[in-house]
Amino acid sequence: MLLPKFVAFLAALGTLAGGQRSPRLTRQSQTDVLQNIVTWDQYSLIINGTRVDVFSGEIHPFRLPVPSLYLDVLQKVKSLGFSAISAYFFWGLHEPKRGAGISFEGFRDLQPFFDAAKKAGLYVIARPGPYINAEVTGGGFPGWGTHTSGLWRTSNASYVEAYTDYMTSIGKVLAKNQITNGGPIILVQVENEYSGFQAPYTEDFEYEANLKSIMRSSGVTVPLTVNDAWPGSHYTNVDIYGYDSYPNGFDCSHPDVWLSDAVPEYFWGAHLGINPQAPNAVYEFQGGAFDPWGGFGYESCAQLLGPAFERVFYKNQFAMASTVLNFYMLYGGTNWGGIAHPGVYTSYDYGSAIAEDRTLREKAYELKLQAYFRSVSPAFLTSQPTNIFATQGSFTGNQALKTTQLLDFVGNKTAFYVVRQTDASVNDDQTYSLTLPTSIGQLTIPTIGGSLALNGKDSKIHVVDYSAGSTTVLYSTGEILTWATIDSTDVILVYGNKGELHETAFKFGAAIPTANVVSGAGKIKTKLLGNGGLALQYVTSGQTVVRVGNVLLYILDRANAYDFWVLNPATAFGQSFVHSTQKNPIIVKGGYLLRSVTASAGALQLTGDFNTTQPVTFEIIAPQLFQAVSVNGAKLALAKTPQGTLTGQRAGSLPPISLPNLASLPWKTADSLPEIQPQYSDASWTVADHKTTVNPTPPNTTVVLYAGDYGFHTGSILWRHHFAASGLEKGFNVGVQGGAAFGFSVWLDQTFIGSWKGDGALSNFNGTFSFPSTLSKDSQHVLTILQDHMGNEENWWAAGEVFKTPRGILSYSFVGTDKTASGVWKVAGNLGGEDYIDTTRGALNEGGLFGERQGWHLPGFNDASWVKGSPMTGLRHAGVAFYRTTFTLDIPAGVDYPMALVFTNATATTAAFRAQLFVNGYQFGKYVNNIGPQKSFPVPQGILNYNGQNTLAVSLWALDAAGGHVDSLRLVTTARVESSMGKVANAPSPGWVPRVHVF
Ligand code: GAL
Known about the structure:
By secondary structure, this protein is mainly β. 12% of the residues lie in helices and 32% in strands. A hairpin with a 2-residue loop joins strand 19 (459-468) and strand 20 (471-476). Helix 5 (157-176) runs parallel beside helix 6. The chain is globular and about 110 Å long. Residues 13-26 and 571-580 have low confidence and may be disordered. Beta-D-galactopyranose binds next to loops. Residues 1-19 form the signal peptide. It is an enzyme of class 3 (hydrolase). This is Beta-galactosidase.
């Protein structure tokens, strides 16, 4: 399936080539700023007078409804070397009922998120919408939008009226948290990918201007930005225009296949054509991929967009001078409750660097290498590329390699050379030498013989005349990891793949020191280059440390480079919000994760995480005044390394825990489809009797059978049709629409007559279901139809109304006759519809199954009268059952043991059943056995109570006449980590109380 944005993008390519641009409106300029804290020029953002590399990652607080975990994720991001995060906010969650106010209560409160960012020292790019896309239901638009007239994403009055309250309210929240008011927000994005306009509609400048003016009148003074779907010159009248890019696509089925020309080089030219006065800002660059129902699973996506992708594509963005660069997603989280649009399932792991369970993938370490390098390379912030496109053979003479040169046009000293394969699809090994201009004349590198290597899907950044403290690195083919001046020694860390030959050369004055290996097994060759130049040649393998004059050079292979952490003691600056600073760095070789360092009276206190009980060897590169070091409160027994740094060992402590065996717990069950019983009364259901609708899809039925028109926007929907038979009805034909992978089941009175079991690619289905026998004349019947609502569609096309695509019954007829007198239709969805009951867990968390309407999924519901039975026994007929059990957990403090509920049924087998998992009332899993792919459902600590009782409820909808059951359901840990993260407060989990108007 081609995503709408790619269709639009292809159509627009012609326009780009022709250089046509949309008219420009005024933007905040450098002479007319509303504030002077965040400014910019053609190179970079300047915050409080200092140029900043905005190296950012996308995180959505609403996809992690445990605010006390925000800091854990954000500290990890900070430790990886990021300076910023970016976040969408989701209108539909904040205003599920029109006119009932904008809720910032509970998990919808943004303050804890901004506070955590501030505490972690990260800037924030805030992206409130109103439209966000983001794979959320309706693309962020509230459900009530589906029954609101007007073309959305235009200046249509009805739409403007719809978003004004939300945008004003959130604008005020953002204004309060701007950097100008002491908060972390540096940029605010209006709209999202306002880029695709289906004829006859075009870019609506009035709409754009109104969004900007609402932000300004709400008090937002920091620069406004926009995220164009490609550098397509839309909505350019914001302050700092930018765009997004997903160059490896979303098909995770062939995770090793890249297109030859996948690396986007035209960005630089496009940027110069659109907004050369501002930095080349990329507000979303691919950090992973979403995965659809029936997809290949996030481990495949993590491979497609893995470390090799990061090296090649992110270094290309370096070559394009993207000094504002945000990765989407850095931490994806979970589509719990009804957050997802139909194109994705419960997990929004995204194959990101930080996995859904908050653990670090190898991708995170590759990002760290790049982030650290960028953050100690201020010359990059004033550099621009000098050659693009026809760069094959440049500087290397090897046509199979492309090399882009970036020159620092302000410092006029440093140059960067970014090398990669000309054909991105190949895995060939290349050898090369670099012929480069340097301050001591042109050099062909390696200068000591041999050749450089670029093996397979890789890319490298080689520096020339690069400043590291008082040292000038004349050139280095070993990539710079970081450097710091510590006790007046310039400590420089370089790395390469294991076994690669590299050279690093220094420019000394008249006296050229000798280079000596002080530790490690590596050997060096040296050569005097003349004019003060001294070259060192080495092979990157393990860790070797060389002293040369005032320089301590750490030569590392990639695996060793991954182990280094650069920490900045916040207290040294007497302020809690340090943002991204390179001051007073302490470089520590450690293990899985180091989070923070505090310095006091000759001692350093480190905090970090251990994912192994094997001893981890630390090396602490810090000023000599620190002679004592503790990790997570435990003192390290220290020794001195030959290079004079401190070293010590510590093993992680991973205490055993016991987890409940879910299969052997006492489970209770009850029927959750009493609606088909003769005594059931639907008297208090909503009568579906609308004759008209504002929905752009014209109804094909005598009454409107769109669930959204009756206020139901999530979960399961039930329809009931009461009719008197004419005596000829032999069956029922019905067209139902629920979104991709949806299913439905149909009963005539008490008799199951069939199901549509679903297909990952189909949003609607027309089914014919035979009655057991022809109905007799004047007999009274009721048809019950249970359907899935997979979320509302996104609305990528501006001025389109795709998100209004109905969920419900599109058509129906009886087989055998068209003379059946039209009867009454009734509908039930989540109890209360837009007046939803569970304000704590939000409007999308519960659907319309009988058990959900009763609140059976909530803790404290009294199931004493239920019979014994578990989802492992399941149902022997089509229908719906609810299951409940409780268990306690007692997980010790000081560890992070993320858990998941795991099904062992083979997905994509024929048994058609759907299950929802409710943990302490929160829906954290929607499992579709016959479609998949998700079987493991992570549930964060805080939703799971790690020290007390938990209620697990499971709804099981068997779509087959034979019924269905879960082969097994287990609670497992997905990682075991000794952790220095903060204490986790459980998300509020109000228990069952009698419900009013329940039916
Ligand atoms: C972008 C969009 C994001 C998200 C992403 C795919 O085009 O701006 O909101 O949908 O695609 O994950």
